[in-house]
Specification:
Distance between the termini: 42 Å
Helix content: 25-40%
Strand content: 5-15%
Strand order of the largest sheet: 7-6-5-4-3-2-1-8-9
Radius of gyration: 20 Å
Order of helices and strands: EHEHEHEHHEHEHHHEEEHHHHH
Number of strands: 9
Bound molecules: iron/sulfur cluster
Oligomer: single chain
């Protein structure tokens, strides 16, 4: 199937990166190495317009993300705009910088769901990974407040070499906090994580053990908590259908208003991203060059072009193809059919106990 913008399905989700500012410094942060400055951030009125346009386009859910979205003083106004546009709003927060009073204002403004990232079940390790002393205690306190307000809570844990041995403890921690869902997401190696890859990469044996533990916990806790798990690409045989397929399910708006098919898309040179300041979201979704570049399957080359799985995984991740194979049209090198797969195996074996290069604002 080849798809162009005019016949593209409606997007379901919008990731609204309200700011790149964040008090934490996670070495796997998905923000780009070059962060959008505060002076370029969209104002609340523009976000409100973007939410109305998203809703008209078919979007159901908006993820209010960052950086740390609570770094914006006008966050209640932005949450209210999402509610007014009939979007289900999910706040993705580090919990640092968001007080109980601030959270209560967001609940009053119509916030539907909160997702808190927790770096580890051991507080000292969690603070070290976040690069912020006391972060863990603040996260636990805010999680309790979320539950007290009756908002559904998801705990998100990014897994890597420093915490992979505690997957079980982290699921127990999420249960104890009253979360209804826990996301065990292995680091994806883009941006800051790519910079820190050797310091973050677990071994194959560690990953296989963690996958087995998650499976066992899923059975054990069925009905009590939903456990979502994202397997690390570098140890997979097939790639994941990145963002559900380029330009098929979701859009990502940066703090300065550029609209991307996925959060890492700016690493691919030559793509032209349109901005919500100059175009409507519907126009961008249907016609912007960046969304059109890898929609459908016409852009593919071998081995994807004649592969039976091409409608299933859409050739994997375009950013990873560029970063590891030097060609955004190549099969994702994570795929064992890719001629570049040996590179992934070699890189997975490069592990070093180096100090983290912390992300900085
Ligand atoms: S530094 Fe950490 S908490 Fe802050 S935006 Fe990045 S990943 Fe999220
Ligand atoms: S060859 Fe391409 S389409 Fe086939 S499984 Fe690998 S990445 Fe997916």
């Amino acid at each position: 199937m080849s798809t162009n913008g005019a016949s593209a399905p409606a997007p379901l989700g919008l990731l609204a990166e309200l700011t790149h500012r964040c008090p934490l410094g996670c070495p796997y942060c998905s923000n780009p190495l070059a962060l959008d400055p505060r002076s370029d951030e969209l104002d609340a009125a523009t976000w409100a317009r973007v939410f109305r346009e998203a809703s008209a386009l078919g979007v159901l859910q908006v993820h209010l993300s960052g950086g740390e979205p609570a770094a914006r003083r006008d966050l209640p106004e932005i949450v209210k705009a999402a509610r007014d546009a009939n979007l289900y709003s999910n706040l993705i927060t580090s919990a640092v910088g968001l007080t109980a009073e601030g959270l209560s204002k967001l609940a009053d403004a119509g916030l539907d769901h909160v997702q808190i990232s927790i770096q580890d079940s051991e507080p000292a390790s969690a603070d070290h990974i976040a690069g912020y002393k006391g972060a863990s205690a603040r996260k636990h306190a805010l999680a309790a407040e979320v539950v007290r307000l009756g908002l559904p809570l998801t705990v998100n844990v990014v897994v890597h070499r420093a915490n992979i041995a505690r997957v079980e403890a982290m699921v127990e921690m999420a249960l104890a906090l009253g979360a209804t869902r826990v996301e065990i997401a292995h680091v994806q190696y883009y941006g800051w994580a790519l910079k820190n890859r050797a310091a973050l990469m677990p071994s194959r044996a560690q990953v296989e053990e963690a996958v087995g533990i998650v499976e066992r916990l899923r059975q054990a806790h069925r009905g009590r908590i939903v456990i979502d798990a994202v397997i690390p690409d570098y140890y997979a045989r097939f790639p994941k259908p990145c963002v559900g397929g380029w330009g098929r399910r979701s859009l990502n708006v940066t703090p300065a208003g550029r609209v991307l098919p996925c959060h890492a898309a700016e690493v691919i040179p030559g793509l032209e991203f349109w901005n919500v300041r100059a175009h409507t979201l519907a126009d961008i979704w249907r016609s912007s060059p960046a969304f059109e570049a890898f929609r459908g399957t016409d852009w593919m080359q071998e081995p994807c072009k004649s592969c039976a799985l091409k409608e299933k995984d859409f050739g994997g991740c375009r950013c990873q193809a560029f970063l590891l194979a030097g060609d955004a049209r190549a099969a994702d090198p994570v795929c064992h059919l890719s001629p570049h797969h040996a590179t992934v195996e070699r890189l997975a074996g490069e592990r070093a106990d180096a100090a983290y290069a912390y992300r900085h604002s």
